[in-house]
Amino acid sequence: MKGKRVLVADWLDLYGGAEKVITILDEIINFDEVYTLTDIRKPEDKHLFFKGNPKIHSTKLQVFGKYFRYLLPLFPYFVKQIKIDPNSKFIFSSSHNIAKGISKTSADQIHYSYIQSRNLKYIWDDEQIDLYFGKFKFLILPFVKYLQKYDVQSAQKPDLLIANSLFQKQWLWDHYHRDSVVIYPPVDLSTYQLYTQKEDYYVAVGRFAKMKRFDILIDAFNQMPDKKLILIGDGELNDQFRKTAKSNIQFTGFLNSDKVYEYVKKAKAAIYIGIEDFGIAAVEAQACGTPVIAIGNGGTAETILHKKTGILVENQNVTSLIKSVEEFESHQFDYEYISKHSQKFSKKEFINSITNLLSV
């Protein structure tokens, strides 16, 4: 690939599933520069994102620190302030919000966009608007139609959209009327390997954000005090969750991959109740041979085989989750079979797919 290679990311903060994809993309493409709305990574986490040392460009949104999300209606303005170096030949955007809307600065540039999740999903779905904005919903409602129009227009800018699941491919078609190529995200199976000595606790890993629905998980286990749940992660809802959780629920805070693996490999099951476009953490758990209890909608419906590698929850509510936990405990699972199933979502498969795509 000739010419300067740049990455455009929505923002850089916590190191989650989307950021793991960025790290692998950097290994494949070796980005020269990175453009983003804001970079608020903790100094001790910065080494996790990029193997090289690309130059990072951010916008004036940087001055708002962790409160930048409150300026959502102004994101289109700040995206327009991003000017890609005209000497750049290849643009790869990682978009779960608005990164795909970056404008080219020369006619011969190529732009591929990897869609990490349903972009701006909280302005496309009434339930998500309620969930994400809560009592401040009235502040965003006047901007919803404007943001929807902008989102559709910006989705036309990349030369190619890459979906991370069949579920997302359909969503992109329904909302943007654009076809896409499906490439499942990479799961580093060199870290997550089969372990058969399970212990008596459940585990969930992820960012404590409203979309992940850890609130349902906590409410359910508050009603099952004899069952231990370990929550691994951090985020804006951390304090709220710790206040409402009972003593059978343990919080570890953010952990590096090695420590996460130690918890996940020994768990009797991992649980994910949020609707994910793909859900890397659920596949990582299966790589360990750990069964997964997850919502039977979105990406987890593609990566989990019901009653073979886990249990698919029928509805996204406390009652349905409790019923699924009870169903799980009455079922026997083959840990080796679960681990083998995860191989189709390996880092190697992702690298081969992206490399083949770039060589076309």
UniProtKB/TrEMBL annotation:
InterPro entries the UniProt entry points to: Glyco_trans_1, Glycosyltransferase_grp1
Lineage top rank: taxon: Bacteria
Every Glycosyl transferase family domain range: 197-344
SUPFAM superfamilies referenced in this protein's UniProt entry, alphabetically: UDP-Glycosyltransferase/glycogen phosphorylase
Name of the protein: Glycosyltransferase involved in cell wall biosynthesis
Top-level taxonomy: Bacteria, Pseudomonadati, Bacteroidota, Flavobacteriia, Flavobacteriales
